[in-house]
Design a protein that fits this description.
Strand content: 15-25%
Largest sheet: 10 strands, mixed
Bound molecules: glycylglycylglycine
CATH architecture of the largest domain: 3-Layer(aba) Sandwich
CATH superfamily of the largest domain: Isopropylmalate Dehydrogenase
Helix content: 25-40%
Number of helices: 11
CATH topology of the largest domain: Isopropylmalate Dehydrogenase
Order of helices and strands: EHEHHEHEEEEHEHEHEHEEHHH
CATH class of the largest domain: Alpha Beta
């Protein structure tokens, strides 16, 4: 009999390394993905500060098209360019990846006060104070904080769905509605409207300032936190600090048709080019991408390998107190998987 060859799924992945350590952690991540038996086809796009110097734009149309045409996007980091719009904020908007998912989990062997943290921040990605609508004159400048019912309900739904998927029991809405009465009034109302569709999930809401304190004093009480753009951004950096820092903080930006995965950290110009950036947040973001693509087994293998390398305490980058390089850590992770 003639052998029937069933074609295997090949995923098109847009790779946008950006600036600074974005390039180093992306090459490390590609090295790791290449070593695994995955059907990924990488296509490369430019964005960021260096891209602006070369092409006169921080986010070329070709990059947007490449990202839109791909099954998923891997993004490294971008350095802000004076006077220019942020490429990553605009790319998230162009792809309509409205939910920024930022998991926060304790690792064994990381010197943290709490070892039982496991929650996720769901940050609204398309509006809030990141509307980039600022105007005024030299005496008075105004930033628009846009909150719509549509986006607030959509992000609340994403948070409740994620809570169900993670098998957790509570969603916390974070706002500042005692001061931002209209905008955060709408955000909070939208949250409780959507909550009615999930009677099995517990709900609570806190002011953002109180939440900043509870994250330090009782982080294990959180399951899923949903917040607007700026609050979600700030709280996720604070939360990353509880579990080892930005070197261990991955993220996914999810919409109805696209997924973009990037480390929470930026381009870190102070350590760029030194081969000492922690590759784990980029690699964990790639693992989130594999989850999104339905490749759960290999995604779990990657997470398990990182947990093992981190908890062994032997091979770590300087941000975690070690003296290993980006590539030494990456190779140690690969060795745990294959
Ligand atoms: N991976 C997230 C990232 O690159 N953050 C850096 C950032 O937000 N840079 C500002 C900008 O792109 O304008």
């Amino acid at each position: 009999y003639e052998q029937i060859v069933v074609s295997e799924i090949m995923y098109d992945i847009a790779v946008i390394s950006g600036d600074g350590i974005g390039r180093e952690v992306m090459s490390a991540c590609e090295y790791l993905l290449d070593k695994l038996d995955l059907k990924l086809s990488f296509k490369y796009g430019e964005a960021g500060f260096d891209c602006f110097n070369k092409n006169g734009t921080t986010l070329p149309e070709e990059t947007i098209k490449l990202a839109n045409d791909s099954d998923a996007v891997l993004f490294g980091a971008s350095t802000s360019t004076p006077g220019q719009p942020s490429p990553i904020i605009n790319l998230r908007k162009e792809l309509n990846v409205y939910a920024n998912i930022r998991p926060i989990k304790s690792y064994k062997g990381i010197n943290s006060i709490h070892d039982d943290i496991d929650f996720v921040i769901v940050r609204e990605n398309t509006e809030g104070l990141y509307s980039q609508a600022e105007y005024g004159d030299e005496n008075k400048v105004i930033a628009e904080r846009i909150i719509t019912r549509r986006a607030s309900e959509r992000i609340s739904k994403a948070a409740f769905n994620l809570c169900v998927k993670r098998g957790q029991s509570k969603v916390t809405c974070v706002h500042k509605s005692n001061v931002l009465k209209k905008t955060d009034g709408v955000f909070k109302e939208s949250f409780y409207k959507i909550a009615k569709e999930y009677p099995q999930i517990k709900t609570e809401d806190f002011y953002v300032d109180a939440t900043a304190m509870y994250l330090i004093t009782q982080p294990q009480n959180f399951d899923v936190i949903v917040s607007s753009n700026l609050f979600g951004d700030i709280l996720s950096d604070e939360s990353a600090g509880l579990v080892g820092g930005l070197g261990l903080a991955p993220s996914g930006n999810i919409g109805d048709h696209n997924g973009l995965f990037e480390p929470v950290h930026g381009s870190a110009p102070d350590i760029a080019g030194k081969n000492i950036a922690n590759p784990c947040s980029m690699i964990l973001s790639a693992s989130m991408m594999l989850d999104y693509l339905g490749e759960w087994e290999i995604s779990n293998d990657i997470k398990g390998a990182i947990e093992k390398v981190i908890s062994d305490c032997k091979i770590r980058t300087p941000d975690l107190g070690g003296d290993s390089s980006t590539m030494e850590v990456t190779k140690a992770i690969v060795k745990e998987i294959i």
